[in-house]
Amino acid sequence: MNTISAPSVYSQRGFLPFVAARLAAVFALQIQAIVVAWQIYDMTRDPLSLAYVGLAQFLPMVLLLMPAGDLIDRYDRKRILALSWFTEGFCSALLLWLTSSGSTMVGAYYAALVLFGCGRAFTGPALQSLLPQIVPRTQLAQAIAANSLIMRIATIAGPLIGGSLYALGGGNLAYAVCMACFALGLLLLPLVPVLFADIAKVTETVSWYRLTAGIRFIFSHPMILGVISLDLFAVLLGGVVALLPIYAHEVLHVGPQGLGMLRSAIAVGALLTGLYLSRRTYNRHVGMTMFIAVAIFGVANLVFALSTWFWVSFAALAIAGAADMISVYIRTSLIQFLTPDDMRGRVNAVNMLFVGSSNELGEFRAGTSAAWFGVIPAAIIGGLGTLAIVGTWMWTFKSLRTVDKFEDTL
Length: 410
Description:
Layout: E1 2-3, H1 7-10, H2 15-44, H3 47-74, H4 77-100, H5 106-130, H6 140-188, H7 207-211, H8 213-219, H9 222-238, H10 244-251, H11 256-279, E2 280-281, H12 286-306, H13 310-338, H14 344-373, H15 375-396, H16 398-402
Antiparallel strand pairs: 1-2
Helix pairs in contact: 2-3, 2-6, 3-5, 3-14, 4-5, 4-6, 5-14, 6-11, 6-13, 8-14, 9-13, 9-14, 9-15, 10-11, 11-13, 12-13, 12-15, 14-15
């Protein structure tokens, strides 16, 4: 462990407004996620309805992420980010209108989430590509840890606030707050200067060749392929977020506030871990540490699957969040160190496609498994699947298992 002074990152002129803008947008995302999931399940009481919540957001991301990465490498990344946040804020406005009109047409809510998925296709790659332009490369690993730490504040407070807002004023109040958060992010974004790199000059002239450059780059670098695919399959099989409304309703017997606490538990563990990593960056045996963290993530989800006690479930989710934070920190740092600036948009777009697949398709997998087998067997199967993936990937990607320091990838 190497102690690094936090002000060395926070003193960078563009870092604090970048983090503040992103924090506001993540607040909106987390509040909206918890409210729309509760609202739709409350209307339908059908586990498949939660599966479709993830699918509605994932499908547009599949179609748009590759063009998004190409555009991010060719045009102003801040402008693209602003347009994506505006689109997501408009989605919150649509959900507010549907709720205030008393609509129970679930398809209309799914349509709004499709629009939200379109915006998210551009948001993730733009944010990931913008961060290395704000801080110098020598502080990039610490900036990633500090940025992740601050984002976890929103992922803790967002679900708690979302559940409380829904209990106090229903979806109307919650979606209005989401709109305000996106507006705040848009107001702060012009204060973020690009300090350390210009927008990449993409020279390829064939459109399809440009669009697929990120895929070719990833498949030509086994370490990047290993970390991205590990996250894809581990979360796709082991994630339990989509099942939380069912557990809150039928297993743990808590209301929307309890659901918000369960969703925040994952971020509580991640926050504490991120706080440590932002002060003492980890840079030894990073490959093996990542595999161990993902294995702990799978075991913690198994404990949650079997628990019928609220606080045991909360603790298991917190441990899963802590393990996931370590994995995310190592995975993100490896990708950033291995990727040149002129490829960041396209590589991060492919990475977001994998992340989106693991999250949104993971929700669909969890919802359909719960409908077929029941909620508890579905969660158990997912946890065991995560452990199987860890063992398979450790055997398949030896170079990733043996990497010691981030600098070894340069």
